[in-house]
Amino acid sequence: MKIEEYIKSLPNDIISGNEVQLPERSFRKIFEFLNLNENDVFYHLGCGDGEGIKIALQEFHVKKAIGVDNSKEKIQQAKKLAEENDLNGENFLCQDAVTAKIDDATAILFWFTDIEIIEKMKKRFQSLQDGCKIVTIWGPLPECLPAQVDFPYIINQVPFKHANLKEQLLAIFGIKCIDFVAAWEYAERYTKAIASHNTENDRFLTILQSLVIWINAKNLGITCEDDIPVPIKNYMEILKKFFGIEVEHLLNDTNLKF
Ligand SMILES: C[S@@+](CC[C@H](N)C(=O)[O-])C[C@H]1O[C@@H](n2cnc3c(N)ncnc32)[C@H](O)[C@@H]1O
User: Fold this and answer.
1) pLDDT tens-place string over residues 207-231
2) Number of structural domains, the chain?
3) Whole-structure pTM value
4) Is residue 2, in this structure, part of any structural domain at all?
5) Is residue 196 part of a domain?
6) Rounded Cα gap, residues 124 and 118, in angstroms
7) 160 and 182 share one domain
8) Ligand 1 pocket residues where CB is under 6 Å
């Protein structure tokens, strides 16, 4: 089956990202990267159970921290967490991220994959105060040149600088071309950063991600190799043979297909 069909067969709650919660270590890493401190007004859009807001307040001592989530259940959980930790329940808003008031933000955590939400939020982010940092995970905001990268964490800073996809990729990877090793290293960093550790699953995810990174780079003309490198071919074969998942059709250059 094609990789798109495989992804469709996975539980919708996971693929939509709605039941995906960052581990505590990821929040700490992101907040250190943001240099979050007592001068910051921090918003976590899609705050889930509120753990991120708790860490921002208790460990990074931000001036104000607001978690926004459109799920009543999630906000209830977050308010419970606030109560248990003597935080203010007003730190949590049950609202749509697209309409929530965020004008005073200096730092925002925004991990969404829904392109409609991303496009709407990008417009809103553009009118925030200069210097406001928006952290995204895996990729920058559309057509934005990342201000800082600690892959998979990316800081987009207001006012945004324009970049095309190729410029974005090169800014993220910090190299002139992408080979198999770079694709693998970045895929692994992503898996390690956000997944709960499980060696077997991690390896599978890394294989999928590295193939997708290399193929996208190839389609953009920024791979170091002209042909498909042997390890990429091997992993494509392994995916097809042992997992029944095909990715070759993602390559634009039909001459490369085998
Ligand atoms: C990883 S975040 C983002 C998930 C999002 N559906 C996406 O596009 O990736 C997960 C959290 O965002 C919340 N969420 C999803 N859509 C939202 C929206 N429009 N506004 C606020 N929170 C939202 C979910 O309830 C969940 O707690």
Assistant:
1) 999 999 999 999 988 899 889 999 9
2) 2
3) 0.90
4) no
5) yes
6) 10
7) no
8) 16-18, 20, 46, 48, 68-71, 74, 96-98, 111-114, 117
